[in-house]
Design a protein that fits this description.
Elements lengths: L2 H7 L1 H23 L3 E7 L5 H12 L5 E7 L4 H7 L5 E5 L8 H8 L9 E5 L16 E7 L6 H4 L1 H6 L2 E5 L11 H11 L5 E3 L8 H13 L9
Parallel strand pairs: 1-4, 1-5, 2-3, 2-4, 5-6, 6-7
This protein binds guanosine-5'-triphosphate, magnesium ion and zinc ion.
The site of magnesium ion (MG) has 4 residues, from helix 3.
C-alpha cells in the first residue's frame, strides 16, 4: 500500500486499533496468568458457530470449565441457546457494531467468575471481515466456514484464513445436497496458509468433532501460546 493512501486512510482508525490492542494485551495477560485458553470464533452469519459451541459445551460437560461470550447486533437468542449447556454465558449486544472489540470483552468478563473457568469461548458477530482485525486478547482464532456457503469463501476471505490457528469446515452432513468442491477449497486454503489445520465437522451430527475437541485440549496443554495480532 502506498504511503499517501496510508495517511489519508487512517489516523482515527489506527488510534482505535491502538487502544483496542492495549486492552486486548491486558486481557491476554490476565487470561494467561490464570491458565485460561481463550478462543475467538469467527465465521459468516449462519455458518454454525453457535451450533458448534452447543456441541462443544455438551461434549465438555464435566470435563472442562468453560465460559462463553457471544456477540450479536440484537437478541439474546444465541446466549439463551448456550446457557442450556453452560452456566457462565454473557451475551454482548453490539447494536450497529459488526464485530466484537477488546473493550466489550473486558466489560463482559466483569460478569464472569474467572476463578471457575479454564476455557473462554468467544463467538464473534457473524462476519468474515472485520472481526479478523480486532484483537480480543484471545490465544487462538478459529475460522468457521460452512459447505452451504460455497467453496470460494476461503479464497474470498484471505485475511481470516491467514490469521486463523485452525479452520473448521462445518455442515459436512449436507455435502450430498450442495455443490461444494472440497479439493478446491483445500487448495485455496493451502495457498494462503500452508499449515493451518482444516477440520471437517458437522455440529449437528457430531461428525469430526473429536478432532476439534482434541485441538482444544492440545492448545490448552500448550499454554495457549498467543496468536499474533492480525
Ligand atoms: N445440517 C447442519 N445444519 C447446521 C450445522 N451447523 C449449524 N447448522 C444449522 O445452521 C443454522 C445456523 O446455525 P447457527 O449455529 O445459528 O449459526 P451461527 O454461525 O451461530 O449464526 P449467527 O450467530 O447468526 O452468525 C441453524 O439452523 C443450525 O441448526 C451442521 O453442521 N449441519
Ligand atoms: Mg450464533
Ligand atoms: Zn466490524
Amino acid at each position: 500500500m502506498s504511503e499517501s493512501v496510508r495517511t489519508t486512510r487512517v489516523p482515527v482508525v489506527e488510534r482505535v486499533l491502538e487502544v483496542n490492542d492495549q486492552l486486548a494485551a491486558t486481557t491476554r495477560a490476565d487470561l494467561e496468568r490464570r491458565g485460561i485458553l481463550a478462543v475467538d470464533i469467527i465465521g459468516a452469519p449462519g455458518s454454525g458457530k453457535t451450533a458448534l459451541l452447543e456441541a462443544t459445551l455438551r461434549a465438555l460437560k464435566g470435563r472442562r470449565h468453560p465460559a462463553v461470550l457471544v456477540g450479536d447486533l440484537a437478541t439474546r437468542r444465541d446466549g439463551d441457546r448456550l446457557a442450556r449447556w453452560c452456566d457462565q454465558v454473557v451475551q454482548i449486544s453490539t447494536g450497529q457494531g459488526c464485530h466484537l472489540d477488546a473493550g466489550q470483552i473486558r466489560d463482559a468478563l466483569m460478569q464472569v467468575d474467572l476463578s471457575e473457568v479454564d476455557l473462554l469461548l468467544i463467538e464473534n458477530v457473524g462476519n468474515l471481515i472485520c472481526p479478523v482485525g480486532f484483537d480480543l486478547g484471545q490465544a487462538a482464532k478459529v475460522g468457521v466456514f460452512a459447505v452451504t456457503d460455497g467453496d470460494d469463501k476461503a479464497a474470498k476471505h484471505p485475511y481470516l484464513v491467514q490469521a486463523a490457528d485452525v479452520l473448521l469446515l462445518n455442515k459436512i452432513d449436507l455435502l450430498p445436497y450442495v455443490s461444494f468442491d472440497g479439493p478446491l477449497f483445500q487448495a485455496d486454503v493451502r495457498l494462503l496458509n500452508p499449515t493451518v489445520p482444516i477440520l471437517e465437522v458437522s455440529s449437528t451430527t457430531g461428525a469430526g468433532l473429536d478432532a476439534w475437541l482434541d485441538w482444544l485440549d492440545r492448545k490448552s496443554a500448550d499454554g495457549g501460546a498467543s496468536t499474533p495480532i492480525a
